[in-house]
Amino acid sequence: MAIWNSRFQKSFDKGALKFSSSIDIDGKLYNEDIEGSKAHVKMLMKQKIISTSDGNAILKALEEIRKEISNGKLNFDWQKEDIHSLIEERLVEKIGERGKRLHTARSRNDQIALDERLFLRKEINIVSKLITDFQKALLKQAQQNKSTIISGYTHLQQAQPILFAHHLIAYISMLQRDKERFNDLMKRVNLSPLGAAALAGTSLPIDRNIVAKNLGMNGIILNSLDAVADRDVLIEFINDCSIVMMHLSRFSEEMILWSSQEFSFAKIDDSFATGSSLMPQKKNPDIAELIRGKVGRVYGSLIGILTIMKSLPLAYNRDMQEDKVHLLEATTTTKDSLLMATELLNNTKFNKNRFEKELDGNLLLSTDLVDYLVRKQVPFRKAHQMVGEIVALCIQRNIKLNQLPIQEYKQFSVKFEEDVFELLTARKSIENKISQGSTSPQEVEKQILFWKKELSNSLKEKKQNIHNNKKNIK
Ligand code: ARG
């Protein structure tokens, strides 16, 4: 018989129960459920709502149940409906009547809301750490590729030469914002909904703040309806995961391009590539493709949870049980993808000399010619037009910019002199950049130093600061 069954004449239909059962999903929150229950019991004891001896018996049995679950001894029977009922029924089985006091002044509505927040709190820290690991892998490659030159692109058309390190650091910056988003979310997550009871609060003399404090939370969600009805923090979390996945899929896409024969730039270690069952020569970047593909799951979860919450009247509705499907899907996929992206990058070598020669004298140095003329007082728009004509001429003759004789340059502008050819190498183009945050070796070095410091700090910070978001927020 279910824990709520006494007012019914008949027991719940088997098929309906199976349809309602969520234990396969919320069973994954058993640790959080027990942690929350223990904090609740301690408060009930302190407030003298239950006796110390009953409370202690419950606390002890809850710990035993935790072990039974982690050892696989307690079966997740779907007929038990959800993890809350399973644990409570097991408790009563173990210690009898005393176990029946656990749920005093509590509802499964505030209980699940708390479990989810405890879960999010833990996962935010894990995801942040995985992001830092990926950033470190990017930084390591950046340090190894401080002078590797590649073409930078816009519209996937060659634009200007850049240092590969510069390109990688762009990802470090993107991921840093992802981490900040999670850290900022922590201050909204780490609040306790417990004590809201079903929706209206309770007539028993509980102390909500003691529970929050005991759990290391920064306070309570005051309004009891809001406490049980809100799932905003889950939506935010899945949104933040979606942005991480979007970033990972851009990175994956580039890894896939770079490892193609046409680019021949990235060499993925054999242990992270796959072959074809038909074409013997194939070496495929499946891991990158899978990360790119798995984005669909996380975006799906975001739309899923937004759709569940849309139009729900206050307060709790059973629809909300489905939120955990999306929460767990997004969490697992994001963590797995971050881990794999890190491993993939750590197991990839880049061909440092792949592009430099090809880019010397190449049309992608046109902007350097424009800047040359601008430095000689030619108005920018005029210089742009002249260089455009030079480009057209080179295309017509199928030559590079550095193959056009100086006399011909002079026909476009008398400002052109022999020294123009010094500009026409990829490396010179990069070295000539002077603006802040540009791709010049000095600016890239500054960025590398900045991230080295930042990423070693972030680890120290995390160690002292498991869920105290206050210090975490920049
Ligand atoms: N398994 C439920 C969920 O995850 C717990 C809350 C059930 N509350 C209720 N009133 N049926 O949403």
UniProtKB/TrEMBL annotation:
Protein name: Argininosuccinate lyase
GO MF entry, a single one: argininosuccinate lyase activity
InterPro entries in alphabetical order: Arg_succ_lyase_C, Argininosuccinate_lyase, Fumarase/histidase_N, Fumarate_lyase_CS, Fumarate_lyase_fam, Fumarate_lyase_N, L-Aspartase-like
NCBIfam families: argH
Originating species: Stygiobacter electus
Compartment(s) of residence: Cytoplasm
PROSITE patterns named in the record: FUMARATE_LYASES
The Fumarate lyase N-terminal domain, residue ranges: 7-300
Keyword terms of this UniProt record: Amino-acid biosynthesis, Arginine biosynthesis, Cytoplasm, Lyase
Family of this protein: Belongs to the lyase 1 family. Argininosuccinate lyase subfamily.
Domain Argininosuccinate lyase C-terminal: 364-431
GO biological process per UniProt: L-arginine biosynthetic process via ornithine
Main location: cytoplasm
Top-level taxon: Bacteria
EC number: 4.3.2.1
Known catalytic reactions: 2-(N(omega)-L-arginino)succinate = fumarate + L-arginine
Pathway note: Amino-acid biosynthesis; L-arginine biosynthesis; L-arginine from L-ornithine and carbamoyl phosphate: step 3/3
Any GO CC annotation of this UniProt entry: cytosol
